[in-house]
Write a structure and sequence with these properties.
By secondary structure, this protein is α/β, with parallel strands linked by helices. It is 37% helix and 21% strand.
Length: 430
């Protein structure tokens, strides 16, 4: 029975929210696209990646409105609009689409993710202590966040009133104002306090926030359908494929390379020439990648140029590509490259960073659904899928998550798990 529908605007965000339920043993599915058969769903939690982050506000509104109408017609009671924890995307348009289409009077919105130091104080959103507009997300080359005050950011895309409130205390009544109700949270306790107040008189029909507040919903919603979650054995080899330009991720790549990872930067031609990986040069490059994977169990393939991305920007400009075309072209190329590598015996555990990268990879191998398994670190999700009749695993993370040694720690964790399980299996055979 479907207890909760979650609407996310990108793939990695869908997974880092869905895993909050899957890690508790709650049956959870993550699907891509707006064609959803709600009646056929057999999970308790269904997460739909609408891929609306990079659409226009009007287009994003239409997608969310359509899915909301269809879900309510199918009898879905609770809908959670998952937003980006750094406030990227069409937040105002999508929240207003959910609220207006549902016919409800108010939509509580808790944008904070204090578990990774993203908090809301006095209506202003902060990333690691600075307003989001002064963080790496404020200088994103594709879609910079231009407002740190959440109500102002919402108001840029909708005429639905947005109101800012402090954390609700135990027993405090939910404000009566109509519209989008934005709540502060500086800690997990703050999220929990507001959550209990919202649920005091029953389960809200509409809610919004990121993975931070979603982590509390299994208990707030009293979800009892749970199963045991076990860590699967992963290939000890790790390939990191990075399509992110976020400075946090770039530092992670630098630290990994300094500690033994092989690192390959794709050329502008490899990233932007259609059909490159089917060409003779592309086949030779793939052979070189396979040799790199075979020689080192820890490898990186990334889309950033050394010393900055001017060569790629110039190459794109010469071919008449704008920023949107550049983003889509690079993600598509990565997807085609990974599609060629997917059957390689040298390909071990795959870590993909960036929602566009993940989506295009899955598209190229025909995967439309992932099942989140657990978090390997906060914001870093292990998921499984079926490919050619076999279960495979992929690790995903958003570009702005994690400490600088994250990739090293993940590689060590995967190796430790593989070694420990080998010992267990070996002991069972004797």
């Amino acid at each position: 029975m479907l207890l909760l529908l979650i609407l996310a605007d990108d793939f990695t965000g869908a997974l880092d929210t869905g895993v909050q339920f899957a890690a508790c043993g709650i049956p959870t599915r993550v699907v891509v696209g707006e064609q959803v058969d709600f009646a056929a769903n057999d999970a308790a939690v269904l997460v739909v990646d609408t891929e609306t982050r990079h659409l226009s506000a009007a287009e994003a509104y239409a997608v969310i409105a359509k899915l909301t109408r269809e879900a309510m017609s199918a009898g879905v009671f609770s809908i959670y609009k998952k937003t980006d924890s750094a406030l990227r995307g069409n937040i105002g348009a999508e929240l207003s689409a959910l609220l207006k289409t549902s016919g409800e009077r108010r939509l509580p919105f808790l944008p904070a993710f204090p578990q990774i130091d993203r908090v809301t104080r006095d209506g202003v959103h902060y990333i690691s202590g600075v307003p989001v507009t002064e963080s790496p997300f404020g200088i994103d080359p594709f879609e910079p966040v231009r407002h740190a005050r959440v109500t102002e950011l919402i108001g840029e895309q909708t005429d639905v009133p947005a109101h800012s409130f402090p954390t609700l205390k135990e027993g405090e009544a939910v404000p009566e104002q109509e519209g989008i109700l934005v709540f502060d949270a500086g800690s997990l306790d703050d999220l929990a306090s507001t959550g209990r107040a919202l649920f005091r008189n029953g389960r809200p029909r509409l809610m919004a926030g990121c993975a931070g507040f979603a982590a509390l919903l299994p208990d707030l919603m009293k979800m009892t359908e749970r199963r045991t979650v076990t860590m699967p054995k992963l290939d000890h080899r790790l390939l990191v494929v990075c399509g992110s330009v976020n400075s946090i991720t770039l530092r992670q790549l630098d630290v990994a390379e300094q500690n033994g990872f092989s690192r390959l930067r794709l050329t502008p031609r490899q990233k932007l020439d259609p059909g490159y990986w089917e060409s003779e040069n592309g086949k030779e490059a793939l052979q070189g990648i396979n040799e790199m994977l075979a020689a080192n169990p820890r490898c990186i393939i990334e889309t950033n140029d050394e010393g900055g991305n001017r060569p790629t920007a110039d190459y794109a400009a010469a071919r008449g590509l704008d920023l949107g075309g550049l983003r889509v072209g690079i993600a598509s190329s990565i997807g085609h490259m990974l599609g060629k590598l997917f059957t390689s015996p040298a390909l071990g555990t795959l870590l993909l960073t960036g929602g566009d990268t993940l989506l295009q990879c899955m598209n190229c191998v025909g995967i439309k659904e992932l099942e989140p398994v657990c978090e390997m670190e906060k914001g870093v999700v292990l998921a499984r899928f079926t490919y050619r009749g076999c279960t495979r695993y992929v690790i995903t993370k958003s570009g702005g998550f994690g400490h600088e040694k994250l990739l090293l720690d993940l590689a060590d964790l995967i190796a430790d798990i593989a070694q420990a399980l080998d010992k267990i299996y070996s002991s069972l055979r004797f």
